[in-house]
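Session log. Operator J.P. requested a structure for one protein chain; no other inputs attached. Running the standard single-chain path with token output.
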Amino acid sequence: MPHLSLSLPAYHAGQKLLRQQMQGKQVTVAIVGRRWGKTFFAINEIVEDALDAHSRGGSGPRRYGWFAPSIDAANRGWDEFDRWFSSLEARSVRSERFVELLCGCRIYFLSAASPASIRGHGFHRAVIDEGAWILAKVYERAILPTLADEDGPLLIITTPAGRKGWVWEEWCRAVKGEPGYLHFNRPSIDNPNPKVRIYIAKRKERMSKTAYDQEFLGLFTEDEAALFRGIDNAVGGMLEQPAPQMAYLSGADLGKSQSWTVQYTARVSGGAPYQIVNEDRFQLMDWPDQVRRAKETCYRYNGAPLVVDATGVGDAVLSMMRDAGMAVRGVKILPAGQPTGDLGRVRRHDLLDELALKIANGQIRVPKDLMGPETQLRVELESFAVDIDDEGRTKYRSRSGNTDCVFGLALLAHGLPKGAGRSVTSGQMSREEIEDLGGNNFLEEEF
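Structure written below.
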């Protein structure tokens, strides 16, 4: 079936960019402002895919899933289809929520408020419209399985709703660089409609910055539960090569298995604010190679001492570092309520609080290259939330499940000169004590 001649509005620059970048991606997380043109873009992509698949032939008509938070929201997708593509419609069945195209392909417009209506479907491709208002259990248990048979691509296109929920988690996975993921962010001003642009300009003066940033810039805004506040206070300076006569300090969270090792180095000469000058982030490396790589970084930066997480490493890796001639300081990170005992033992709460204070007060500076809006460090920092349980106890939780960068930076911050000029020293814990504390894998734990 040839493409029909349709009178469609041209994609604006932001839509063209998204279409170009999402080619070949399995999961696209597109976070955009209100009135950006989400619905038209997504419907057009589905129709184009259906017509292209039909023109190429294949194993029969394709099925597409359109998911929205409610029936009304799903109907808006259907209405957008009728507005631009009704000439391609062969029939529709409202009771079964589908439109059938002349080529035989079907588009199902389904509500996430009725997960039972989703079960049993299988799709070649799917769109989730305004996913930030869909429950995680519906996404995980009802929507995702519909793509299992065909391993089809998924477009999540939504205005954000704070740094929480499954959309935020998928965004974090995309920023982290998981294979097949794309993260995309554009503001409402991409819309060339002059009335829309005038309205947005007026609203900037009448809305809170948080609301404006979320609704029209499409930004994940800081919420009241955030642990790390004023992150922009810590953004500044540049990455630097080592300079003669300068003193430096490194901090590293050592990764094992699939987790990452992250090492940050700061210039300490001249005092606060302490400038982060280098980041080294890697994974899937055995202990001897990690020791070698950490040593190379410290050696380049004038023999910088290294503050390292020793919780799940034990004395063996510390001994390897010392045998390699490194000036290493091991820190045992303890659960809440555990006594610290000496400078080499610190509770997780205290370690994170110390970093949060230094960030808020601008006592450390991190180059924008490392802590810009879509960097791994920024995503991890913004993911930490403070929860208070029914008994009034405070718990810290990483909502993205990634903490390697945060703990690498926290260990460095912990080792920076303090009021009395002292820094951490290696603690004295047995291997059995370390293992009893559960190692150093903190993903999805409450701190």
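Operator note: Confidence is low (pLDDT under 50) at residues 419-447.
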